[in-house]
Prior knowledge:
Layout: E1 21-22, E2 25-26, H1 29-32, H2 62-73, H3 91-104, E3 108-112, H4 115-126, E4 132-137, H5 141-150, E5 157-162, H6 167-184, E6 188-194, H7 206-215, E7 222-225, E8 243-247, E9 261-265, H8 267-280, H9 286-296, H10 299-317, E10 323-327, H11 335-344, E11 351-356, H12 360-369, E12 374-375, E13 385-387, H13 399-405, E14 411-415, H14 421-433
Helix pairs in contact: 3-9, 4-8, 6-7, 10-14, 12-14
Amino acid sequence: xxxxxxxxxxxxxxxxxxxxxxxxxxxxxxxxxxxxxxxxxxxxxxxxxxxxxxxxxxxxxxxxxxxxxxxxxxxxxxxxxxxxxxxxxxxxxxxxxxxxxxxxxxxxxxxxxxxxxxxxxxxxxxxxxxxxxxxxxxxxxxxxxxxxxxxxxxxxxxxxxxxxxxxxxxxxxxxxxxxxxxxxxxxxxxxxxxxxxxxxxxxxxxxxxxxxxxxxxxxxxxxxxxxxxxxxxxxxxxxxxxxxxxxxxxxxxxxxxxxxxxxxxxxxxxxxxxxxxxxxxxxxxxxxxxxxxxxxxxxxxxxxxxxxxxxxxxxxxxxxxxxxxxxxxxxxxxxxxxxxxxxxxxxxxxxxxxxxxxxxxxxxxxxxxxxxxxxxxxxxxxxxxxxxxxxxxxxxxxxxxxxxxxxxxxxxxxxxxxxxxxxxxxxxxxxxxxx
Length: 435
């Protein structure tokens, strides 16, 4: 990009040219996390990026200020260059967004103050009055609630389908959604997926959704919440998704000490969301962005260790007489789900559902007896966490809907951390004795 070919929605100070190849060899994301998007020369030679705690940025001259606002307002072609105000963007967030793009092979990325901020601003950017959103189920309860309760206030309706739906079933859902949109005087504005679904680990066939959307000639993005497996174990853009969504609070942040979110994809899909974020705010703060850059340096190590631990723990749990079943991607029993896993996933992850023999009382006894694992919501941290979705994260979901989605009273969601696997097995052993 030349100095005169500046993107109007992404004001940047250009760092030195990035080294992404050596002798034709593409450098891996884990290598690029150590410096991608950052030029020490721009920050007094500091090896790590400083935290830029500023709300506004000084113009070199009044003429530069005029040029910047001429670009923002469209009075001059070529867009805006440089930084002006931290509601729009700032150095820490820019570097973070560059590095997030690397993991998913995306053209552009945007950071937000939480995963739900990312999801809400994304949906608001694409949904207009009387539109229809098509989504998979289950979704995280807050995501589902935003569609069903908040967007509904503006005449936006939805059609949903089960995560494991076939191409034919997805075709039928899109046909229904198009008819619904025509009747309302709107359009199908987005296909929103969550795969694996929270908390059941149900997988969506992204390739089938892509084929269905193309066959239906829908001009709308396919967005997917990739929090459970991303960025290491699944790259949905490779399977045909347009936008990948994260709660960075989880595996990317990975230390249970921050809240943030992101989306990534082609610039044509990011630009409308960026413009709405510029207006509404919701960008993640510089300190959180800095912490996320720290976390991205070790995300591969942490996720690999947690994944290895989960495999060992699930091998133990699968044999236990008080365990009715496991929703673990390393032990799929359904042929259709296994086929999706083989085509889409690079690993089984470390978050799974544990089905105990019994119900809520047995689950509560198990949870209250844990000594290493912490009784807390969220996932993807260095520590092992366990929770009871039916009475906690998904309590707001109607009982019939919970049953339909497989979120039963005997389901415990577990996120395995990076502790010693044998110590975790010892903890689960003694906790199951209380059931």
